[in-house]
TrEMBL record:
This is NHL domain-containing thioredoxin family protein. It comes from Polymorphospora lycopeni. The keyword Metal-binding does not apply. CDD domains: NHL-2_like. Keywords: Repeat. Gene3D superfamilies: Glutaredoxin, TolB, C-terminal domain. Residues 5-150 form the Thioredoxin domain. SUPFAM superfamilies: NHL repeat (SSF101898), Thioredoxin-like (SSF52833).
């Protein structure tokens, strides 16, 4: 059992710019008195936040008469501050609870959040009883909710009944938040209709529907076009004909929220699972091949045929993976799971939510849209390089030389026959073009509604998956020529989270980890905890960088550096206590902590990996 708190903290009042999913009603904590409340501090660009939405769904279903989840949207990117974009995201991701718009991060600060996502639990009497960062908390939350139900049922302070959620009406459109597209032999287009959990096949005009694959309901069933189901599918990859013949399917689908790869036969529309267990990856990194259908994946977002196999943009853990449809094996291709920007030889590089892939015409270069660093990157000759992009917190809409150009959360990329590349610069509502020979970025189209992919057909047409407009958009002829591009010198922005003030010199980093109720640390397969620390700029950290097994570490901060970002990755292995067949769990969190250095500031940096004791 967890220990009772002696320092009861009254939950701060909920205030923001507005509410969604309440039928226009503004909620207060008084309105929620008698309910168990989970405040989910999220931002819609963040893959970890999307994971938490899926973790909370079963809890909302099971405890709907006593539990109210309130999403507190605390944005990172400028585009996410747009209330129209937020409303679209709430619909896109099927958020079935009230959402408070917190554009200036006021609630974020009131509840002392330091990472996306953060969960705060408020009891029926209005007190904060737990706070936890990151994902993977469903089991611990279940046990906490059960304890709160028992306690407040006995006290008479638990009120059962319907919550304040009011579902919005869904407009009638052919597509709903489409994700990616691929041209098929013969010129038809296959599109992932993400919010409707299906694939739609269009004639070459991009408007006439000639087929649908998937029931249209969220699920993970294999089978015929009418009975198969997906969960927010994204990327599509057409296999080479000789590979498809042996594999038994023609198209690989990144079935994102199911954490699966699916195979589709184009002649019958039959769907089969080809990789993934359906469980989200919570393991350790290795360089071994694994049986594909026995491997756990994490939010595969795009797929591309490169170097004789399918490369998978594994957005959920900031890696690229490979999948061999002949050998039916899979494994890590690039990335350590640290969310940041670091180039070098594969696989020991850092990525940040890779979301779009495309291969150059000669097959030598794999381009990728690294969305959280707002970067265009590429793999060539066994190494990862950055063409455009400066890091996790720098973004904007700026054209010109590669070293100065900026994007804002790009999701799609399309390599062109001349060696240049088009980028779906999603949060800027633009399609950009990068010329690797001149090293220059330009804008070829703007005013688009969250473009998420670009396809150039065999006939030379440029089609944009305009996701928030729920359509395919054909760009004007001449888009592919340099003369058709313009140069934009827009604002340069930086994600400004409230920084943590630290003093120069010695600082103690403490990652506070409390196992969920009913669990204990598990060292049966080696040390139960792991901590990795780095800094940007690197000179901020004089001592303390690197990997270790202790969750407390002495850091030495250079007082001459005014500030930067401490990158902290912590994980802890636990197992069920007092169980004959104990289940194992891995809790992991990646923080990018902005810091400013001041002589009178704190000498300790506490971070919470899991739940606090209640």
């Amino acid at each position: 059992m967890t220990k009772a708190r002696t320092d009861r903290v009254r939950a701060p009042q909920l205030r923001g710019r507005g509410w969604l999913n309440t039928g226009g009603r503004e909620l207060t904590l008084a309105d929620l008195r008698g309910k168990i409340v989970i405040l989910d501090f999220w931002t819609f660009c963040c893959i970890n936040c999307l994971h938490v939405l899926d973790e909370l769904r079963p809890l909302e279903d099971k405890y709907g008469d006593v539990l109210v989840v309130v999403g507190v949207h605390s944005p990172k990117f400028e585009h996410e501050r747009d209330p129209v974009a937020l409303a679209a995201a709430v619909e896109r991701y099927g958020v079935a609870h009230p959402v408070l718009d917190d554009p200036d991060l006021d609630m974020w600060q009131q509840y002392a959040a330091k990472a996306w996502p953060t969960l705060s639990v408020v009891d029926p009497e209005g007190y904060v009883v737990a706070s936890m960062a990151g994902e993977g908390h469903a089991e611990g939350l279940t046990r906490l909710i059960e304890e709160l139900i028992a306690t407040h049922d006995a006290k008479g302070t638990l009120h059962r009944g319907d919550g304040p959620y009011v579902p919005p009406a869904e407009p009638a459109t052919t597509l709903r938040f489409p994700g990616k597209a691929v041209e098929l032999p013969g010129g038809d287009l296959l599109v992932s209709d993400s919010a409707r959990h299906r694939l739609v096949r269009f004639a070459p005009d991009g408007e006439t529907v000639v087929g649908e694959i998937g029931s249209g309901s969220r699920g993970r069933a294999d089978g015929t076009p009418a009975t198969a189901s997906f969960a927010e599918p994204q990327g599509l990859c057409l296999l080479p004909p000789q590979v498809a013949e042996v594999a038994g399917f023609d198209v690989v689908v990144a079935d994102t929220v199911n954490h699966l790869l699916r195979g589709v036969r184009l002649d019958t529309g039959e769907v089969v699972t080809v990789a993934g267990t359906g469980r989200q990856w919570r393991s350790t990194v290795d360089d071994l091949p694994h049986d594909a259908v026995s491997a756990d994946l994490s939010s595969p977002w795009d797929v591309a045929w490169y170097d004789g196999r399918v490369v998978v943009a594994m957005a959920g853990i900031h890696q690229l993976w490979w999948y061999d449809p002949i050998k039916r094996t899979t494994g890590v291709y690039a990335g350590t799971t640290v969310e940041a920007l670091r180039d070098g030889p594969l696989p020991d590089v850092w990525l940040a939510q890779p979301s779009g892939l495309s291969v150059s015409a000669d097959g030598a270069r794999l381009w990728l849209a690294d969305s959280e660093t707002s970067a265009l990157r590429y793999v060539e000759d066994g190494a990862l390089h950055t063409a455009v992009g400066q890091g996790l917190f720098d973004f904007g809409h700026v054209d010109g030389p590669a070293g100065e150009a900026l994007m804002q959360h790009p999701l799609g990329v399309c390599a062109l026959p001349d060696g240049s590349v088009l980028v779906a610069d999603t949060y800027n509502g633009a399609v950009r073009r990068f010329d690797p020979v001149a090293g220059v970025m330009s804008t070829v189209a703007d005013g688009l509604a969250e473009p998420s992919d670009v396809v150039v057909t065999g006939g030379g047409d440029v089609l944009v998956v305009e996701s928030a407009a729920h359509r395919l958009t054909r760009l004007a002829p001449g888009t592919l020529s340099a003369a058709g591009a313009s140069t934009v010198d827009g604002p340069r922005r930086r994600a400004e989270r409230p920084p943590t003030r630290l003093r120069g010199g010695e600082v103690v980093l403490d990652v506070i980890f409390t196992p969920a109720p009913g669990q204990k640390l598990d060292d049966s397969f080696g040390p139960s905890t792991r901590l990795e620390v780095s800094a940007s700029p690197p000179e901020l950290l004089v001592e303390g960088a690197g990997v270790g097994t202790d969750l407390s570490r002495r850091l030495v901060i250079d007082p001459a550096v005014p500030g930067g970002v401490l990158q902290v990755v912590a994980q802890a292995a636990t197992c069920d206590a007092d169980a004959e067949h104990a289940a194992c769990h891995l809790t992991r969190q990646d923080w990018g902590v902005p810091v400013t250095i001041a002589a009178d500031a704190a000498a300790r940096l506490p971070l919470i990996l899991r739940g606090l004791d209640t």
